[in-house]
């Protein structure tokens, strides 16, 4: 029986490519290297995509073994397979499997430009309330609930209480969980945090407009995927800042002071102590927005 | 057949020339591309693809389901006969049917193949990536300081997609669609397929599922290559073009709008993330230009255009781009002029 079947080359190429994509997505999720590419709250979608591609692979593989007589004979002439069409897929798969998985290098922050200018304060509000947001590195949230009134109010009061905590604390510890909360709050209302001590981990950024004693300490904030990565953080001052190379990871401890950057009043951290550390396992910050 | 092949070859050639030209410029400006630059490019490139894949799959699956499970009569029953009502409905369809811009082109083509007027399908294609709950709430969070930006964004998106669809309804009649893999049964490409539909299919449900998966995967290859090429171009732009080249115009009204539209076209980020990027420019850019970024980007960007060129005739796509660009530029300029909106008081 088997000799009545012949391989359909086009469907065979397609099924191999689909298998490749499905395997790539599965491996990426399994090894957790997916966090270098997208915000973990989308991982479920990626898994669903991998399953769907696998089903599509089965459908294609089935028809690659299809009997070539009958209704499909037209495929053999009329138009040949254009192998060039598969080139983009093959190149993508080669890059995916052959190159190492790595997080964005800090060198790209130069192109993106750090978010250091003075940030606009919310207008028409009686009390300082930043954009309602907070981070949770691995939280899976449901976007569809974001509009829910009661939920929003609850989140609002949660953020409120976190900000109260910040204002009372003598020492602000910047962690992955409160990163964007702190950078937003302190950059919008620097005068309220003058004199407070702060500890933070981040990579060194140098900008042309910085003085010799200044450097930026930042991390990439990823909303959806690393294509929308924005470096976020603070300007720091240290007398031997020239020794820091761009991209060095530092753990710093310092005090918040007011300074000027491009004519705007911005918070500047006077660094008292620092230690060089290796890049963290997961270098990105994933904000979860309520 | 020959003519179509020539056209395809010409487009590929044009495209290769364009990429070579861009690459040449990049090499001239940046003589030292390091290994880490290349790895960054790879990370951004793959991340756009990984992020967009589920949405492209939803798009091709919906298109294939339309093809295999719905008849033209069923769909026609739901459509209002009146042209304006028809376009209005298309503009609001995104609320119940949120599709991101990565997957919308195959859906639009599938709708046309099922008898939906081309102008309504285009209005849906332009509106759905913006006028939906996910994008509205992410914009609201990003512009927590200026909540009115959400309404401006949604309103403007609706206006642009409605006006574009209405204008197109006078100039094009629906013959500008190029049928793709999902519309040809099984992707034979023999030309007979969409005349006698399902000529070799049993009507069993499982068989329908199989054919749906099959035509979805054919359309996945059809559209996916453009998604990949578009993502590569966007990743190139992100990795090698410093943002201040286009973005040092800030407060000048018209220039800021033009540069923000160029920026949106080039970076091709997802419509649920772009509000955060726009918000980070709030201090330095006019409100109109931020709106232009958030309305133009989801409607027209690199990867989108390539997929549109695959689904519609080049002339049609060119007219569509010109109409949308003009509508966005003029209306956001008027918004700047009237100085409504949030960013002006920042």
Record keyword descriptors for this entry.
heterodimer, A: 290 residues, alpha+beta, OB fold (Dihydrolipoamide Acetyltransferase, E2P), 2 domains, five-stranded mixed barrel, two-stranded antiparallel ribbon, 6 helices, 8 strands, B: 346 residues, mainly alpha, 14 helices, 71% helix, 0% strand, globular, disordered C terminus
Word description of this protein:
Chain A has 290 residues and is of the alpha+beta class. Helices cover 31% and strands 21% of the residues of chain A. Chain A has two domains: 2-98, no CATH class; 106-289, Nucleic acid-binding proteins (OB fold (Dihydrolipoamide Acetyltransferase, E2P), Beta Barrel). Chain A has six helices and eight strands; from the N terminus they run ααααβαβαββββββ. Chain A has a five-stranded mixed beta barrel. A two-stranded antiparallel ribbon of chain A has the order 1-8. Residues 68-79 and 122-151 of chain A have low confidence and may be disordered. Chain B has one domain. Chain B contains 14 helices and no strands. In chain B, helix 8 (148-171) packs antiparallel against helix 14 (314-338). Chain B is globular and about 60 Å long. Chains A and B meet through helix 1, helix 2, helix 3 and helix 4 of A and helix 2, helix 7, helix 9 and helix 11 of B.
